[in-house]
Amino acid sequence: HLVLSEEGQILCIIFAKNHLDLPLSSNAILSWKFCHVVHKLLRDGHPNTLRDSRGHTASIRQMGTLWGNLHDRYGHIVALYAKLLCIKIDFHLKVSLIVPSITFEYIYVFDMTSEVLEYMEAALKLQETVFRQMESSSTSSTTPVGKCRLAPLVLVVQDCGPLYHFLVKLLFKLHSRIPLDALLGHRERFREQFNSLTQFFERVRGMEFFKSIIQIPDLPDEPPNFLRAASFADYVKPVVVQNETFPDFDETDTQLDFGEGNYQMVNTTWIGQTFSVLVGLQAEKETLLRTVKDQEAEIASLRQAAQLHQTMLQQERERHQREMTALHNQLQEKVRVLLQKLQDEQFSLLQCAVVEAEGMVLDAVAKVDDPLHVRCISTPDYLINRAELTLASIDKMQQSHVAYLRNMDDASGLLRSVTQFSHLISDTIVNGAGTAHSAPTDQADRLTDNCRDCATHCLQYLKELKLKATLPRADPTAVRFVVQRILNQGQDLRPRGADVQKEELADMVDKEMTATSTAIEDAVLRMDEILSQARRDSSGVKLEVNQSHFSSLLDIVESGRGAGSVKDFYAKNSCWTEGLISASKAVGWGATQMLESADKVVTDRGKYEDLIVCSHEIAASTAQLVAASKVKADRGNRKLQTLQQASRHVNDMAAVVVSSTKSGQMQIENKNSMDFSSMSLIKLKTEEMDSQVKVLELEKQLANERIRLGGLRKKHYEIEGISTDSPPETPSIDGW
User: Fold this and answer.
1) What share of the chain is helix, strand, coil (3-state, %, to 5)?
2) Where do the ENTH domain residues begin and end (predicted)?
3) Which pLDDT value is given to residue 137?
4) Side-chain half-sphere exposure of 203, counting CA atoms within 13 A
5) Segment (H or E) for 241
């Protein structure tokens, strides 16, 4: 068995050539033809050829792997062909070891069937790929290229016929002894291969190339039914018939002769043909080598051109990159400039808002020390409301400040916060000063000082917001602290209501209204007597007061009483009721004071200013009654309209009283006019200086009296327990 057959020696020579001279690794067509020769040797060569080829399967498999990785069209079918040859060699070597009998174990038959299915699958895969490549490239079977690809398929047809027959026998034998469920996979694979093999035979049967070489075997229309044992009797073995050039081989049911000659005589004619093929291959090799040299020269030229083109592309790419970099830098610079411009504009808007806020704060703090603002009074409750809203706006300012520092492209949030903060902080300062006007002296001084401190810290905070250098560290903590102190003082100044039970409020309203009405009636009667006496005294100054007008002034209480309600209404609105009682008391007291002042004026014991003040107080008390009634009355209430008309009439009549009083005062002053004609220059200068001193003393006394008046009013509101949002505004009476 160590002596090689002649065909084996030829095969060894071919394999040696593969390693030494044949460019199988660089020429796919030559590799394809090499596989064809090996296949021909395995089928029709000496029986020992198969045995001698055992040591060369690794080389064939390596060649197939090489071409399979190159993704070449011929390389793809070379890889499939090499795989088929390796499977063929391994399979026939294994089959040659089987005892020529059908009594071997069925587990071995099961494995053998799997290997035959794999063998058939490799052959069918090769032919499917060859035909698919020819169709995709529109290659005709009559051209040399087409014949080169189709020639190995003749051997594939010769292999597939016996394989199909052997596979059918194995499956029938397995189905006779093995459970059907265990063979389901085999049956499905066989059905797929049967359909593919039928299509393969039908395709080559219609091609002229195969008609002149081999007769294609016929297959049944349907695959055998392995589930019925009787179907084996109807099975017809497919026979491959070929011409004289390709001798047929014999086969029995018990021995497996898959392409091995009689696995006895050497076909000398075939050997001669093989040598002729080798000579042709050698000539073709030389031609291919020359072609390879020409192609290598062409490739070198193309590579040089490609390198030149690549260099030009690289230069162009670098130029474009430089241009893109320059454009990108320009764009970045423009974006930076625009962004800086946007930020500057946003900061300018912020500065404008801060400047406006500074103006509002300065205006508010100026009112604290303005003498004209002394008569402006606010309530602790309203001050508390302003201070609480201001604290909330400070929180919003801090949030907007942080957001602006994170994104200085948008200052809209901080602008809104600055505007709201400036209005609220100004309201807090103004109303703090107004509340101080009605507070006790020590508390008023502290509240006024806190209002000034609030303005100072607020202006400092706004100054930090206005400058870029100090913007990041601007902190309203000091402002918050002072506003909190103002809030606490407002809470301390809240009026404490009278110690009266709520259920007694209704009785108090009726009692005060009755007492006020009685006082008014008495005042009207007494006023008539005073006026009559004034008219009889021709030497005195006439007091022009109309009785009907004065009666209208005092009838306001009756109208206000008509707008009242039942006890539960008074109890439910206790704060409002207390204000109504206070206003009623003020009207009654004002009527009495006006009566006394008029009596003193008539008897030359009083001052005209007393009448003016009493008229002012009655008008203010009347306005308070109207305001209290307006809070609880409907807009279209007729009694409210009557009340408002009466209030306006009272205000007009009070103005008449003031005008008449001033007129009478001027008459007296005209009678007592001074005569300076007899004074010398020195005397006039002395009197002028004394008069200036007296004016200064009177101005100082006037300022002190105004402060004292404010303190008295604060204490008055505190004792009366007025808890409305703000005290009633004093009507304007001829400049008072």
Assistant:
1) 75, 0, 25
2) 1-99
3) 87
4) 18
5) strand 241-242
Buried/exposed 403-430: b ≥16 CB within 10 Å, e otherwise: bbeeebeebebbbebbebbbbbbbbbbb
Residue type, 618: I
Residue 391 CA, chain-centre distance (Å), reads 31
Per residue in 465-507, pLDDT (tens digit) is 999 899 999 999 999 999 999 999 998 887 654 445 555 666 6
Q: How many residues does the chain have?
A: 736
Q: Rounded to whole angstroms, how far apart are CA atoms 502 and 188? A: 102
Q: What tokens appear for 729 in the block? A: 């505004």
Report CA 250 to chain centroid distance, whole Å: 83
- Span 157-165, mean pLDDT? 92
Please give the Cα distance from 429 to 439 (Å, whole number): 15
Contacts 24+ apart (CB under 8 A), 101-109: 101/254, 102/173, 102/253, 102/254, 106/173, 106/174, 106/177, 106/178, 109/170, 109/173, 109/174
Q: Position of tokens 């898959």? A: 258
Q: What is the pLDDT of residue 253?
A: 39
Tokens of 124: 């069918």
β-pair partners for 135: none
Say how far apart CA 722 and CA 579 lie, in whole Å: 6
Identify which has the larger pLDDT, 245 or 117.
Answer: 117
* Strand-pair partners of 241: 215
- 431 touches 378 (CB < 8 A): yes
DSSP, collapsed to helix, strand or coil, labels residue 215 as strand
Could you tell me the end-to-end alpha-carbon distance of the chain, in angstroms, rounded to an integer? 146
Q: How far is CA 152 from CA 124, 127, 129, in A?
A: 13, 9, 13
Nearest to 45 by CA among 249, 335, 284, 322: 249
Q: Could you tell me the sign of the dihedral formed by the alpha carbons of 279, 283, 284, 288, in that order?
A: positive
> What is the DSSP code (8-state) at residue 104?
S
Q: What pTM did the predictor assign? A: 0.45
Question: Is the CB of residue 203 less than 8 Å from the CB of residue 216?
Answer: no
Instruction: Write down the residue that tokens 């051997």 correspond to.
Output: 155
Q: What angle do helix axes 574-602 and 681-720 make, rounded to 10 degrees?
A: 150
Tell me which H or E stretch contains 214: strand 214-215
State how far the alpha carbon of 463 is from the alpha carbons of 45, 352, 420, 600, in Å. Answer: 109, 12, 17, 59
- CA nearest to 656, candidates 728, 730, 552: 552
Q: Which residues contact 558 (CB under 8 A, 6 or more apart)?
A: 517
Q: Which are the contacts of 432, defined by CB distance < 8 A and separation ≥ 6?
A: 378, 383, 387, 447, 448, 450, 451, 454, 486, 490
Token representation of residue 628: 């209290």
Query: Looking up tokens 């795989």, which residue turns up?
Result: 83
Mean pLDDT across 669-680:
64
- SS3 per-residue string spanning 248-267: CCCCCCCCCCCCCCCCCCCC
Phi, psi of 241 (to 5 degrees): -110, 130
Task: Supply 318's token pair.
Answer: 């670098």
Q: What is the pLDDT of residue 276?
A: 57
